[in-house]
Amino acid sequence: MNPRIAFIAAPLLVMAYGVIRILDGLDGSRGPGLAWTSGHLAFMAALILFVSTFLQMRRMAGGNVLSTVTTGLGVFGILTLFVQFGIDLVVGFMSADHAAMSVLFDQVQAVPGVPILIYQGGPLLFFAAQTAIVAQLAVQRRVKAWTPVLVLLDCVLPFANKDLMPLGALFLLISFVPLAGQVSRTAKPGSAPAPSLV
After folding, report:
1. What confidence tens digit (pLDDT) does each residue in 18-46 have?
2. What DSSP string runs through 121-139?
3. Which spans are transmembrane here (predicted)?
4. I need a surface site. Which of 27, 87, 105, 179 has the fewest CB within 10 A?
5. What are phi and psi of 190, to 5 degrees?
6. Is the pTM of this model over 0.85?
7. Cβ atoms within 10 Å of 80's Cβ, excluding its own
8. How many Å apart are CA 15 and CA 166, to the nearest integer?
9. Residue 63 reports pLDDT greater than 80
10. Distance between CA atoms of residues 77 and 122, nearest Å
11. How far apart (Å, rounded) are the C-alpha atoms in residues 86 and 103?
């Protein structure tokens, strides 16, 4: 797959998840059902693509120690989110209604270490690392200074209100378009791209 596609498809899939999530909640509860399943599958597909974006941004940053550590933390965060959404899917498949889902989620949350690793600390690493590596690219003048600001907005908006996720995804898409352009201008693997003029 062309690596540029990940920078465009990942935010669009997150946006799709956000929209589906809103629609799923119009009846007052979310899941189980088609909307719950399709939304979660969209987000999980986005997470797979985010691995590619991290690897590409690490290469853009020159593959230095900071970008390598940041990428490692980001990928670990992606893995925890993938597990979280996988649990959500399994709970949805096993439950007849939303009340049954709540019971199963309580059982999952009762497992020692799961809340902090899968639902709290682990996912935060993804968002923090994504902002950090784009900020590094901005410092290196690979992207404009406003790019990490938009990435940060994408990260914080869902924490303020999850219904703002589609808006955050739009900000992420706008910030990722110049990065996709950087991929297309890279001369060869392992070489750092020229400073962005986009």
Report:
1. 999 999 999 888 989 999 999 999 999 99
2. IHHHHHHHHHHHHHHHHHH
3. 34-55, 116-138
4. 27
5. 95, -15
6. yes
7. 20
8. 4
9. yes
10. 5
11. 17
